[in-house]
Design goal:
Blueprint: E1 2-4, E2 7-9, E3 12-16, E4 20-22, E5 31-35, E6 42-47, E7 54-56, E8 61-67, E9 74-80, H1 97-107, E10 111-117, E11 121-127
Parallel strand pairs: 3-9
Antiparallel strand pairs: 1-2, 4-7, 5-6, 5-8, 8-9, 10-11
The protein binds copper (II) ion (CU).
């Protein structure tokens, strides 16, 4: 979360619990980033242009970020315990397609493997267990093997 033009950029930053956020100063004057509310109290001290400090966010919270030197500077770090958030603007979709796929596959006992490299593309492998037919209650009720059941749904 940079300080640029005497503002925090971005103004709202969603992160997962345990994330360390950098606060680089891109202005040619000093800033002093701190927070006293929202579950994380810290003061990163005063640092000038090109300087930076970091803070690790350890629990779910809405952390209000201020600058001790510029009272009008304010931002929010949303510390979340799940990855189901979006940074998309309204009318630009939810950006939650992959999160939705992950949730569905996890619910089926499967797994999603993702291999991504900047400029090279992304490969996504989805593995889901095959369904097994329910056992028959007795030999008399046993379903013949050719009953037309299918364990596949795609
Ligand atoms: Cu400042």
């Amino acid at each position: 979360m940079a300080q640029h033009g005497q503002q925090f950029i971005p103004r709202v930053l969603p992160v997962l619990v345990g994330t360390t956020v950098e606060f680089p100063n891109q202005d040619n004057f000093y800033h002093n980033v701190f927070s006293v509310a929202g579950g994380e109290r810290f003061d990163l001290g005063r640092f000038g242009q090109g300087g930076s400090a970091s803070q690790t966010f350890t629990g779910p919270a809405v952390v209000v970020i201020h600058c001790e030197m510029h009272a009008d500077m304010k931002a929010y770090v949303l510390v979340l315990d799940n990855p189901f958030f979006t940074t998309k603007d309204p009318e630009r979709g939810t950006g939650l397609g992959l999160s939705t796929v992950w949730g569905l596959v996890q619910g089926m006992g499967g797994q999603v493997d993702l291999d991504s490299e900047l400029g090279q593309g992304t490969t996504l492998a989805i593995r889901v267990p095959l369904a097994t037919p329910a056992p028959a209650a007795s030999a008399e009720e046993e379903v013949p093997a050719q009953a037309g059941r299918c364990a596949c749904w795609w």
